[in-house]
From TrEMBL:
<feature type="binding site">
    <location>
        <begin position="143"/>
        <end position="149"/>
    </location>
    <ligand>
        <name>ATP</name>
    </ligand>
</feature>
<dbReference type="GO" id="GO:0003921">
    <property type="term" value="F:GMP synthase activity"/>
</dbReference>
<keyword id="KW-0067">ATP-binding</keyword>
<dbReference type="GO" id="GO:0005829">
    <property type="term" value="C:cytosol"/>
</dbReference>
<dbReference type="InterPro" id="IPR025777">
    <property type="entry name" value="GMPS_ATP_PPase_dom"/>
</dbReference>
<dbReference type="Pfam" id="PF00117">
    <property type="entry name" value="GATase"/>
</dbReference>
<dbReference type="InterPro" id="IPR001674">
    <property type="entry name" value="GMP_synth_C"/>
</dbReference>
<keyword id="KW-0332">GMP biosynthesis</keyword>
<dbReference type="Pfam" id="PF02540">
    <property type="entry name" value="NAD_synthase"/>
</dbReference>
<comment type="function">
    <text>Catalyzes the synthesis of GMP from XMP.</text>
</comment>
<dbReference type="GO" id="GO:0005524">
    <property type="term" value="F:ATP binding"/>
</dbReference>
<keyword id="KW-0436">Ligase</keyword>
<keyword id="KW-0315">Glutamine amidotransferase</keyword>
<comment type="pathway">
    <text>Purine metabolism; GMP biosynthesis; GMP from XMP (L-Gln route): step 1/1.</text>
</comment>
<dbReference type="InterPro" id="IPR017926">
    <property type="entry name" value="GATASE"/>
</dbReference>
<dbReference type="InterPro" id="IPR022310">
    <property type="entry name" value="NAD/GMP_synthase"/>
</dbReference>
<dbReference type="InterPro" id="IPR029062">
    <property type="entry name" value="Class_I_gatase-like"/>
</dbReference>
Length: 430
């Protein structure tokens, strides 16, 4: 690694990522490690310039206070403590450091260079991937989401046609999404891309299934089976590329921090695939992943695309999925995204989408009574997805979206706007 590094040792603080992100914002790379990392393990990390002990009121494990190995103080790196009193630290703080204090520690005491940027990161990862993979092949499930798209672009830069991408269209994609993946990766970037249209297979399995969890299990399980089938047709593939990012690792827990949730980025692939993992984005936060995509030359509409649930539109076509309502979700979602982009809301609102419930309401079309579906619009802002507020969209924008949906989307006679924050609501409906 070319970048200098500041290591944060997790002693139970809930603010580790805040400190890490602030240091990276200063242009210096930072990683979070468990409190009981050994001095030998720290020595093995590249270019460590300083160590921060980040404690707090949660500084206990199994009811016992956590401590670091005292030999860490002998490594020759400056050590700063946040609410973890020890006489061996150069600096002790009772609260999170402000920017000035961080700057003084990182640059004046640690003598770190501000060389953390996407150009250097990509160069490092290209070198590491080439060293790991050699002349062998890497298989990647390319959903078209931000993480998998950026991984694909980075691996293409590193190993070119040794990367084999598999894009499975399960029939629950947004409008023109699969076409966009094929256009960018196969036609523009010359990727070795296998496209699998499994629409009929998925929709057949989902017929008459109304329970949201059951839908998720069917979609996730069937995706694994399709992907596995394609993988078994290939020869000489020893590696599996994954879009694991840093929050996935942090949320899955360290030895000190309580686990938020486990992440299985390819949906729990069967053990008999026996691939070695290639995860070049595992050091990046989400905004850094997007910056990496921009540096790699991916189109903006792919890099800054909306968060999208794994089951796709399957959990926005509420209840048992029908082709009629699925198409209504797809078309109304496309209209919403188009109008938000025109109004400049695509860069302001964290997530926005449409859903279509599995019931109808009475209306009037062409001077005759009709009984058709409604479309619900949702637009929310959040920092961590644990809570969310509603974006109060200008009425004229809402009116234009409503008019277009009622005119252009078949089998719809009503448009509603969801004003429910999280909590008590959740971001998605299912």
């Amino acid at each position: 690694m070319k970048q200098d590094m500041i290591v944060i040792l997790d002693l139970g603080s809930t603010e580790n990522t805040v400190v890490a992100r602030e240091i990276r914002r200063l242009g210096v790379y930072s990683e979070i490690h468990p409190h009981d990392i050994t001095p030998e393990e720290l020595k093995a990390l590249d270019n460590v310039k300083g160590i921060i002990l980040n404690g707090g009121e949660n500084r206990v494990v199994d009811g016992k206070p956590v401590e670091v190995d005292s030999n860490i103080y002998e490594l020759g790196c400056p050590v700063m403590s946040i609410d973890h009193p020890t006489a061996k630290c150069e600096q002790q703080l009772s609260q999170l450091p402000d920017e000035k204090t961080l700057r003084q520690f990182v640059f004046d005491q640690c003598k770190a260079e501000p060389n953390w940027n996407m150009k250097n990161f990509i160069e490092d990862q290209v070198e590491l991937v080439r060293r790991q993979v050699g002349d062998r092949k890497v298989l990647l499930a390319l959903s078209g989401g931000v993480d998998s798209s950026v991984v694909a672009a980075l691996l293409l830069k590193a190993i070119g046609r040794q990367l084999v991408c598999v894009h499975v269209n399960h029939g629950l994609m947004r409008k023109n999404e699969s076409e966009s993946v094929v256009e960018v990766f196969r036609n523009q970037l010359n990727a070795n891309l296998i496209y699998v249209d499994a629409t009929e297979r998925f929709l057949g399995k989902l017929e008459n299934v109304a329970d949201p969890e059951e839908k998720r299990k069917i979609i996730g399980g069937e995706f694994i089976r399709v992907f596995e089938e394609e993988a078994r047709k290939l020869e000489g593939v020893d590696f599996l590329g994954q879009g694991t990012i840093y929050p996935d690792i942090i949320e899955s827990g360290t030895k000190t921090a309580k686990m938020v949730k486990s992440h299985h980025n390819v949906g729990g692939l069967p053990e008999d695939l026996k691939f070695e993992l290639v995860e070049p984005l595992k050091q990046l936060f989400k905004d850094e992943v997007r910056a990496c995509g921009v540096e790699l030359g991916l189109p903006a509409n792919m890099v800054y695309r909306q968060p999208f649930p794994g089951p796709g539109l399957g959990v926005r076509c509420l209840g048992a999925i029908t082709r009629e309502r699925l198409e209504a979700v797809r078309e109304s979602d496309a209209i919403l995204r188009e109008e938000f982009e025109k109004a400049g809301l695509d860069k302001k609102v964290w997530q926005y989408f449409t859903v279509v419930p599995d019931f109808k309401s009475v209306g009037v079309k062409n001077n005759a009574r009709c009984f058709e579906y409604m479309v619900i619009l949702r637009a929310i802002n959040t920092i961590d997805a644990m809570s969310a507020t509603i974006e109060l969209v200008d009425y004229q924008v809402l009116q234009k979206i409503t008019d277009r949906i009622l005119k252009e989307v078949e089998h719809v006679n009503r448009v509603c706007f969801d004003l429910s924050p999280k909590p008590p609501a959740t971001i998605e409906f299912e």
